[in-house]
Amino acid sequence: MPDHALPELHAIDVGYQDLSGAANVYLLRASEGPILIEAGTQATLPRVERALRERGVDPASILHVFVTHIHLDHAGAAGAFAQRGATIHVHPFGARHLIDPSKLIASSRRVHGSGYERWYGDPLPAPEARVIAEPHGATIDLGSLRVQAIETPGHARHHHAWLIHRADDARAHDSELASEPAPGGVLFTGDAAATFVPGSRFVAIPTPPPEYDLGAWRASIDRMKRVRPAALWLTHGGEVRDPIDHLETVERRLVAEDEWLREAIATGDSDEAILDRYRPWLHGQADAAGVPEAARDIFIGRTWMAMNLAGARRAIETSK
Questions:
Q1: Quick one: which of 137, 169, 133, 161 has its CA closest to 243?
Q2: E strand or H helix at 28, and its extent?
Q3: Cα dist. 156→161, 217, 288 in Å?
Q4: Rounded to the nearest 5 degrees, what angle is found at the Cα of 151, between the Cα atoms of 147 and 152?
Q5: What is the pTM of this model?
Q6: Who contacts 33 (Cβ-Cβ below 8 Å, separation ≥6)?
Q7: Cα dist. 215→44, 62, 69, 152, 222 in Å?
Q8: What is the pLDDT, as a whole number, of residue 266?
Q9: Among 9, 35, 112, 302, which one is most buried in terms of CB atoms within 10 A?
């Protein structure tokens, strides 16, 4: 592991949509016990449990789960861990939906249609006492690790990135009476630093309804830069060792995607007509970046593009 890596950090590939590298849950071993960043979906829980046992961790021993946001590919299995005694840390806007996931289930079924049962499944309700709504800047000490909530809306308003330091490094910084987080931590970014299409380093920008917000997302990118992370860990894509370069690429792609979608919507064309033009624009870039055809069709296919178009339409409507 590189020097900036956290001790005992393991990426668990959940096998999302049968694609290697499509989504991860991250296991860390703090001195207090094992913790997870993200939970995966309820449908991928058996694979996560097997991976934990292979690493000598009883799934029932997980003490804390930090979810970046409540979309089901990130937090769908959080309730299952909570029912076994784990404490779930989540943005304040997302907490109630983990306690009562009925609205999450209804909206996800609409979006994912026939693929819902296979890839997602109904999340279990988390006991209220096991859910902690963490505000921006909240710090959780776990013995050998320190976790800090960094609010990062834009993809969703209920989004945090989680900045994790070795506790000794953080305490050394504290002794200097600094007002900002210590540099050199590892930042788990959920979707705030976008995603990589599996099998490539092509940056895919997810702009889902109802909360996609270009201005908020760009501000979140600035906030992530300011914490000066040594590395990023994307839920969809894994480790990034050049955080600033990556975040600048994300912002360029974000602005380009938003501009293309807004210009397309302004024509007044139907969604079907726009999607017919969107595909060659987006997939042409993916082809140039060497994205495997199967990953391109599944990960940034028509369902993805329809989601992005709906998110852009919603953003335009709510800004009027």
A1: 161
A2: strand 24-30
A3: 12, 9, 29
A4: 120
A5: 0.94
A6: 61, 62, 63
A7: 33, 36, 19, 11, 11
A8: 97
A9: 35
Q: Measured between alpha carbons, how far is 89 from 160 in angstroms, rounded to an integer? A: 10
Cβ atoms within 10 Å of 223's Cβ, excluding its own: 16
- Give rounded-to-5 percent helix, strand, coil for the chain: 45, 20, 40
Structure tokens that stand for 171 in this block: 């305490």
Coil, strand, or helix at residue 47? helix
DSSP string, 107-176: HHHHHHGGGHHHHT-PPPPPPGGGEEEPPTT-EEE-SSEEEEEEE--SS-TT-EEEEEEEHHHHHHHHTT
d(CA 252, CA 300): 18
Tokens at residue 265, please? Answer: 């919507």
pLDDT on residue 1? 34
Query: What gap in Å lies between CA 72 and CA 108, rounded to an integer?
Result: 8
**Which tokens go with 155?**
């993809």
**Among 247, 251, 245, 228, which Cα is nearest to 178's?**
228
Mean pLDDT, consecutive 10-residue segments, the chain of 320 residues?
Answer: 64 94 96 96 97 97 98 97 98 98 91 86 97 97 95 98 85 53 86 97 96 98 96 97 97 98 98 98 96 92 95 93
52 closest CA partner among 72, 18, 80: 80
For tokens 């909206």, the residue is 107
Contact status, residue 137 vs residue 149, Cβ threshold 8 Å: yes
Tokens of 101: 């996931």
For residue 195, the 8-state DSSP code is E
Give the whole-angstrom CA distance, residue 295 versus residue 17.
10
Task: Please give the pLDDT value at position 127.
Answer: 98
Q: Report the candidate in 134, 28, 32, 128 with the shortest Cα–Cα distance to residue 79.
A: 128
Cα(2)–Cα(91) distance, integer angstroms: 30
- Residue whose structure tokens are 């029932």: 60
Rounded CA separation 231/241 (Å): 5
| Contact yes or no for 70/86 (Cβ under 8 A) | no
Instruction: Give the model's pLDDT for residue 58.
Output: 98
